[in-house]
Amino acid sequence: MKGLFKSKPRTPVDIVRQTRDLLIYADQSSASLSDSKREEKMAELAKNIRELKSILYGNSESEPVSEACAQLTQEFFRENTLRLLIFCLSQLNLEARKDATQVVANLQRQQVNSRLIASDYLEKNTDLLDTLIAGYENTDMALHYGVMLRECIRHQTVARYVLESPNVKKFFDYIQLPYFDISADAAATFKELLTRHKSTVAEFLSKNYDWVSSAVTYV
């Protein structure tokens, strides 16, 4: 009889929705719950993020399934799951942060009906890019945010926004940070900004060549 009541496997959409609910919980961080209850919720969140990663990348037993990836991607960007994940990243343990970073990176490449919907989402939520850039000021989060930012820059609209933003000048400060791994990561991101999208970069340099060249010389 026990087999008759076996729970159905969760779909990619189910996992994204449950992840979103857990991220909302983590973001609100209810003080009314005990520490043990919070640990339980955060462990469940880490497990869900690991499952999202497994769907997108596959595992030792199976390759990614395009339909499952598309369902996951569409649900992920249907609401503010990306926003929640970015803002809650610091509350995750190290392994969950790594998994979350890989999930966000992979989602930038996923197409739904021949569209990169991550690009559409970021174009409407550019403040998240400001958050990722400012992440270089947090020594614990800098490398995770740096990976996410470089993957987001794959989208030309995102790269254009960053180049036209006042925040672009911060990279020269980040490149000079005393932490080698963070300064090197910031340099890698800035190099990506100046090399990936030729037409956007050419337009940027035509307007900003003087201060860019002087800043590079100073660095």
Q: What is the strand content? A: under 5%
How would you sum up the global shape? globular
In which range does the helix fraction lie? 55-70%
Assign the CATH architecture of the largest domain. Alpha Horseshoe
Protein name: Mo25 family protein
Pfam families: Mo25
InterPro entries: Mo25
Organism: Populus tomentosa (Chinese white poplar)
Structure, described:
The structure is a single chain. The chain is mainly α. The protein folds into two domains: 9-125, Leucine-rich Repeat Variant, CATH 1.25.10.10; 127-219, no CATH class. It has twelve helices and no strands. It has helices spanning 12-28, 35-57, 66-78, 81-88, 94-107, 117-124, 127-134, 142-152, 156-164, 170-174, 180-195, 198-218. The radius of gyration is 19 Å and the shape is globular. InterPro entries: Mo25.
